[in-house]
Amino acid sequence: MDEGGALVELHLSELEARVVQHEVDHLDGELYVDLLSKDERRRVLAEFRLAQQVQKERVPSPA
Questions:
Q1: To which H or E segment does residue 37 belong?
Q2: 39 is in which domain, residue-wise?
Q3: How confident is the model at residue 33 (pLDDT cuts 50, 70, 90)?
Q4: Residue 6: inside a domain
């Protein structure tokens, strides 16, 4: 919808389509990990936690 509430039709492909769908999913309250299989979600979340830990070790805590 546009600012006035009128429906807007987009014809997108490849990266543009993925980006717009990603944002629509956010507006619908869905996250990327919600769309994954149970095993894939477990793997992605484990990688995310590892990346968080690495980042935490690199950045000093505020004093």
A1: none
A2: 14-58
A3: confident
A4: no
